[in-house]
Predict the structure.
Amino acid sequence: MDRHTLFIMQAGMLVFLGIVVLLAFRTQRRERSDKGPDWFAAGYLCGGVGLLLQAERGNISPLYSILLGNALFMLLSVFMTRAVSETTGQGKGPFYYLIALDAATVANYAYFTFVQPDVLLRTVEATFVMLVMRICTIVLLLRSDDKVIAPAARGIVALLGMHIVATMFRITVAIRHHQADAGFSWSGLIAIAGTALCFLWIDNLRQGAELEQRAITDPLTGLLNRRGLEILASHELDLAARHGWHCSALMLDINRFKSINDTLGHTAGDRALAAVAEVLKSTLRPSDLVTRVGGDEFFILLPNAGEETVDFIVRRLRVAMSKLILQTPSGETFSVSVSIGAITRPAAYTQLAELLHHSDLALYDEKQPSTRQTSQEDGSGAQVQPSNI
């Protein structure tokens, strides 16, 4: 395939896919936390226009076909690198350095076009500059710690790596035959299409992960819901059983929660639930599974936690809960107290259903007047009041 036809095809594909990426992200994700798709689309559009100008070399002024065409085409890699750095949460990356490299390359292009014309040197220089830019993109992708998008990131790395190998082969052929246009291949078309599809795949992977997270998360408190607990607890209990650990569980509810809703309003009740959830998240260990199982009840699975650990955790929770001072929408202040039931079992002989059942029984026992009196006398810090159960 001749140079003109290949450039026209690549240009058309770049422009088309740039528009597709831009429209797809604007339609599917109206609220985005990064501008990666915009940079990606801008890169593809610039690259397409640049290749269209280069395809007309000999028909239009070298100022447009060579200088402007190559400047715009190199922006493809510059903007793609910026898109990857934004999408993977790595800020601006080497963006400004690559812009400077683009400008310096165009200046050299002007020298090798108008002062000392040398098409081969011009081509070799541009090729190596593009390789540097592609390597920057690959490095950013490999440095990303976002496991959700890892399959798509590996796909882009593979495509760019293939294109680098093909480009090195092409430039070797061009140097050996002293012909700048020698060795054009289909690798550019494959890399263009594949990279755009992988970038769209990134968003699909993230949307899938977000939907999965929402499916196992309580929307009010941000804690696990019952489904999330069942999914994650199985792994934690199996791990504890293999290591011979004990597992503990807490069942917790807010005292007089119905009274809060009835007298202060449901907004005050929601604030109480959210505040208790924040205390649980900030007080418990990262390995603990904190779940809102319904209403004002919370279940906490504590892997590798014996009775002494549980006693310490319960005391910390009660102290933290006692410091909560909340406000209603009208500015009225109120506090909350909680009841906590705790159990400990060997993980090898424990199922989640058993932990839920027995911790619920422990909570019921905690609420009995005799238990409350004992807790207050032994100085455990349990200051509980009768609640709606």
In short: Residues 226-377 form a domain with the Alpha-Beta Plaits fold (CATH 3.30.70.270).
